[in-house]
Specification:
By secondary structure, the protein is mainly α. It has 12 helices and no strands. Helix 4 packs parallel to helix 7, helix 6 runs antiparallel to helix 12 and helix 7 runs antiparallel to helix 8. The longest helix is centred in the last third of the chain and has 24 residues.
């Protein structure tokens, strides 16, 4: 067993699911807050209950629940769309063009980034499904590819997460009064009054800077993956 296989096996054993990671991060954050933020000098027991109260209020905060539901729908609906019959038909046509590692890596990267500009949840699942289809196609037609590189290309869409239409921060600041409500209690009233009521998509996604960056990512990243694929080693998919 290679080093990478051993590393992957240990990692999957220790962190079997994203929920486990979320629980561990919550516990770590709790202890960091317990040991480093007790500026009022309260006893450890008293401050522990205060932190647990803050955590509970944060979990059931109405604004946070709305945001969590929005993000869940973004991922779930994107997942459903990626698994739909029309998308499957498109992938079945495109996969026939993937006859080498270089071409496959470039095409997966370009399409994943492009799709992620519309919905990062769709791009995430789309890239993974496309990479898997290429692996099946290579195995069926008995030609060699660098499958790990194709898999990495399938996650490239996350590079434009907040540059596209589904970026969470962009969608929130586009809501009326979101900025002012978010800063309430954190900034003086005089400074909150100076904040804009909303920041539209034209000022974020549609800005010249963002469009230029997205164009460069769509151009340079697939080319980079193509040349990496040219120089990478290949193997038959078992």
């Amino acid at each position: 067993m290679s080093f990478s296989d051993k590393y992957s096996k240990v990692f999957k054993y220790l962190l079997p699911s994203p929920f486990t990671i979320a629980v561990i991060l919550s516990i770590v954050t709790f202890f960091i807050a317990l040991f480093f933020t007790n500026s009022e000098g309260k006893s450890s027991v008293s401050y522990t209950f205060h932190l647990l109260k803050y955590w509970e209020e944060g979990i059931w905060n109405s604004s946070a629940l709305v945001f969590a539901m929005q993000m869940m729908l973004m991922l779930v609906l994107g997942h459903v769309l990626a698994l739909s019959k029309p998308i499957d038909n498109v992938l079945s046509i495109l996969v026939k063009q993937c006859t080498s590692t270089a071409k496959s890596a470039a095409l997966v990267t370009f399409l994943t980034v492009f799709v992620s500009l519309f919905n990062w949840g769709l791009g995430l699942i789309f890239g993974a499904i496309f990479a898997r289809k290429i692996g099946d196609y290579a195995q069926k037609n008995n030609f060699k590819i660098n499958y790990p590189l194709i898999g990495a290309a399938g996650y490239s869409g996350l590079m434009v997460w907040h540059g596209g239409l589904s970026g969470s921060s962009l969608s929130k600041v586009a809501e009326p009064n979101h900025l002012k409500e978010m800063m309430n209690g954190l900034l003086p009233t005089t400074q909150i009054d100076l904040l804009p009521e909303r920041i539209s998509y034209w000022e974020t996604v549609g800005s010249t800077m963002n469009i230029s960056i997205m164009f460069l990512v769509l151009t340079i990243l697939p080319l980079a993956m193509y040349f990496v694929g040219k120089k990478s080693s290949t193997q038959h998919i078992e």
